[in-house]
Amino acid sequence: MTITINGRAVEAPDDPRVSLLDLLRDRLGLPGTKKGCNQGACGACTVLVDGERIVSCLALAVQFEGRSVTTIEGLAGANGLHPLQRAFVEHDGFQCGYCTPGQIVSAVGMAGEAARGVPSAVTADVAASGITLTREEIAERMSGNLCRCGSYNGIVEAVAETFATRERDEVAA
Fold this sequence. Notes:
By secondary structure, the chain is of the alpha+beta class.
């Protein structure tokens, strides 16, 4: 039984009680995914599974046989940091940095949701095929990721800049 993690096939644990978070951190040495509350309330452990964001502390690793998991370590590409990682630095989207990996991974998943037209509680046109990520949309969609330092303004700025730039680049291509 294997799980693809950051593009690499990994054997699922023998113990079916091991959370995906504990597999990543304790058994695979991927410390970027943080154990915050261990109750699914803070978002520090957010990862992408087949492009969808989940909190890994509430998920059993064996549930993801044959699926693809992306952690913060898997976002960077051959050219270095993911554009959102660079934007977090430029916009002071972190202070202590503990929540930052979960914030970044969640924002990448959130942008995919908006592009597919998945509405949020503040989406004006729920029938739209794609949703514009206004600051209000970003704040609402990122509300499951908590920052104890209160860096929300920088986080929203980084997300807004990154995904607005992507839209311009895609239109120009």
